[in-house]
Amino acid sequence: MSQSSSSFRDFTARLLDYEGALVERVEPEGLEVLAPAPLARELQIPELARFGFAAELPSNAERVGLESDWLERFGNLLGERGQTARVTFPFALPGQIDAERIVEHAVSLQNAVYRVTGVAPAWTRYLILLFQVTAFSDEKRDGIIKLGFNLANGSTIDSFVDELMFSAIEPADSRDMPPALSELPPDLTQTQLQSRVGRALPERIDAQLAPFLSGMQRRLDRDLRRVHDYFTDLRAESLQRLQKHLADEAETARERLRLEAIAREYHAKVMDLQQKYALRVDVAWTQTLEVVMPVQRIAIVIKRRKGERKLALDWNPLARKLDIPLCEYSYTRSMARMVCDERLHLTSPAAQAPCTDCAKPYCRVCHPRQCPKCHLSEGKSP
Hints:
Blueprint: H1 3-18, E1 22-26, E2 30-34, H2 37-43, E3 48-52, E4 62-63, H3 70-78, E5 84-88, H4 99-106, E6 108-109, E7 113-136, E8 140-150, H5 161-169, H6 190-244, H7 249-276, E9 280-304, E10 307-316, E11 321-322, E12 336-339, E13 346-347
Parallel strand pairs: 3-4, 5-9, 6-12
Antiparallel strand pairs: 1-2, 2-3, 7-8, 7-9, 9-10, 10-11, 12-13
């Protein structure tokens, strides 16, 4: 049995047991369930039922898998339960870490320098948001985006968000030991959360859907070529007939009408293909997970010309990785950063790119709406 099937079986057993059913494991890789009448009605099963999760089913068992409608049944059973969770990892921190080497591999400043000033143990909170992304075109594609932030410094944690989530769902007995509230970063306000999600999510949606969009574009190009070739041949045949009957006014008029009809039909087919391959993307929040755990906090000082700013980055002992400095404009996943001259904002290079009109580089955090020199608006800030 695959790992996903085994995890689904364990989840099913825990859920049904929580809902008051009697659950026993049966071979091969199945469950026998005695469910209360309300639970049986909700799940549309008999009160005494058998479920199978592997290729070989127990006798008289119903197959339960991720590809069936069982996810929807369990979702209806859970309702709004399980949409938010909080776990605490009292993880043992290593005695010493090579902070200089760790920062060297995680911090990439293109126009500034930095200096490590200290390392100290600390606690942090990671906020992980799950979004379901569904793309509709000539085909349908579903996916899950995991967007995580370190609430202590705003950094995104794409490089180890999966490791945190996997550890969070593994049962353990020592996770109900939260630290003092004074040791934890504060909550984000609703406005702050909406701003961060609004800036961070588009890049990750693009990356999630890139293979799907690439395949869709190939199919569209293929169909457009076929339509173009077909109507090009029709037009060439009509033009040949027109050349042969230039002296016959009636025949010439018919061929001209035929050419106009071919052109109209071609444009109609192209419009049909554009509608067929039109893309709609739906994004819906599904779950929130908060992970509280100790980290090694590395303090650094960033210097740009005569200015300097302090920054704290957390080294995660579970993933053994360091936060990347946040881009204060886009919360991008890329590592490269630049420091602006006006207020020392940390951003990706794209957020300090030259103006498309006057070619003056400027910081999009300082000037989110327009170029400070020529006042050209480059669209709304994300």
